[in-house]
Specification:
The complex is a heterodimer of chains A (499) and B (236). Chain A is 9% helix and 38% strand. With 499 residues, chain A is mostly beta strands. In chain A, strands 15, 16, 17, 18 and 19 form a five-stranded antiparallel beta sheet that branches. Chain A has a five-stranded antiparallel beta sheet with strand order 20-21-22-23-24, with no helix packed on it. By secondary structure, chain B is mainly α. Chain B is built from eight helices and four strands. In chain B, α5 (87-99) packs antiparallel against α6 (104-123). The chains are: A mainly beta (499), B mainly alpha (236).
Amino acid sequence: MVTAARAVRGLGPALVLAACALGACVHPDYHCVSDRDCDVGEAGRCELDHRCTAYDPGCPTRRSYSDHSGPASRTCFDDQIAPANLCAAGQPPATPQGCAASVCQALPSCCATGWSEACVAQAQILCGDLVCDTRIAITANKPGKSELWALTWDGQSWSAIPDSRQSVLAWLAPAPGTREPRLAGFSGGALTFPGGSVPVAAGHTYLEATSVDFDRDGRPTAVLGFTDTAGPHLEVVKLDDGGSRVIASLAATRLSWGDVDRDAFPDGIAAAGASNRYHLLSNIEADDRSRQVDDRVMTTVAGGTSSTVTNDPPALRGFDWIDIDGDTDHELDVVAYGYSVNVHVARDGMLGPNLLMRIDCDPPGVASSCDMMAQADQAFAGAALASASGPSLVIASHPRRALYRVDLHGKPATATVSPFSFPAEACGAACPPIVAVVVRDLDGDHRLDVIAIDGDLQVYTALATDPLRLRPAIKLPTTPAAPGFFVVRTSVTGAPLAR
Amino acid sequence: MTRARRGPRRLAASLVIAGVSVALSAAPAAHADTADTADEHLARGRELYDRGEFAAARDELLAAYRIEPRPELLFALGQVELNTGQFAQAIDYYERFIATEPGADQIALAQQAIGAARARIAEKPAAAPPPRPPPHRQWDTPDTGLAAVGGATIAIGGGLVIYGLDLAGDHGGTLSAYNDRVSRATVAQWAGAGCLAAGALAIGGALLRWRLHLVDSEIQPVASPKAAGVAWVGQW
């Protein structure tokens, strides 16, 4: 009996300790598989990290982690990432670390809303160790003919590969955690890209494919612009599981993403079909807490082309986002290129129809000071050119083949126009106009260079070290050699080059 | 009762004095021719008897009796045995002395001595109780009961804790279902922890009781639903 008592003599304290320890040993830790699992709170969602979030108006992303989400429980959800590839737009906002911190100091939206093309441009300027290759997806159209090309500058030379898909070639952002952008296109009733494809509706005519963190969920998301019998729409597609939803929108052409209202959700700009009207697509919250667009703010490019101009260009060729007023606020300003070049400065979180500047005529100038008849014959393509000395626009005119740099400075803003010189070519005055302009740092000097593409898909470059001088880069081997495309849309991305 | 006991003691004492002196003083006169050896033993026996060394005196008397079996030596031996507390042996010697048919007064004296011896036998106290053992610990039935209850409670508590862990470890289903399970798991685990603590207390109580409960000690721990402490339970 005494032996038994000795056996349990040391048991008491151990059991007390065990009881104390076990009293706190339930560590709830829930991992979801799908949104349906997250049925606590409003508009539950299963995030990429397999944690549930629910609607929380107190958080910038309007979401916070649910209970039982480990250390993140009840904290605001944020899908910021440390991008593996700073050269590719369309990714979630960056964590302000390393070079991204410098970029976000110049453009706060890069860490608050999303990693846009404006962020890539700033990264190329500010990040001393970042040199990107340049990849341009080209969708070239004219009546009865369409060609898709993948144009690449690898740091040493240009190359161009035709793509056999049917329509709309576009670069999508790298998949989460990877660095390689994905070249996507529509073919065979699907949006196809390396490593996957997503079925699309047969009744939709797809116009655009863009990468954007539209829902701020960090998932690989493509927003497609399409039209059907009911008009334009946007389709938000999750590339990881193929899920999609359609959003009503009055505009879906030339879709481009930035941020104008500092609400941590990317806003869009798109043209309304073939018209000269374009809409701000404010990313807003629906009643069910999903994201949709408010397309009520709209304006137009002015002018147009007269009946004397052959091969009428599209009324709108594209949009660009840049911090024009240097307020380093969360807002990005917008430039629309088409019948005129409209420069909008975001004010008070909204991009209203009032313009900072309208540029028209050839040579381009402030529209109010040029001939109305001349305005009617002009159309423009272009791109915003950020630099340490201030913002500029690169503007290509139509129908005359010319390219200009328009430096914007002062308050009220004034424009200083400088023409680029073209190389002497056999086509002479018959050379087609520049129909697409891309701005990227090609030579790794952390100054943005200009890539101009004409209607025959002849590519020119103008390096910042050789200012205002265009040099032939590569002629895409089209058939015929001078196809004369009227509409050339570009989608740009890149990946860091090893140095 | 006390007075009744004192009667035989006094009687025995007087008989010892009288009997030994009679027997020893009468012997030399009756057997003068054989007195050298027997008388020497008898003389030493008398001296020893006078000094209270009764065992040695008995040896001398027996030696004398073996040399010369005088009847009065039997009486003297009875007296010696009476003084050493060997009352039955004393009675035997007295009866053997009477059997030698001494004088009537000596028979009366022997019988009186036999009566005294018998009285001493009668008054001989009962065997003394065994010595009280020293205070010592003893694991008793209440200790076993407490430990058993504590063990059972710990088992229940452990089961509840494991049940709670199992509940919380089931990550399937929706978040609301998981919330429910976690709530139940938390309740179960706290209940389990309580049971574990209670069980440990019970076992600890049993051990404490075993450590402090000294059997045969006058100090005893007292535990009851209304009081606890130490009580003096000694006898007066």
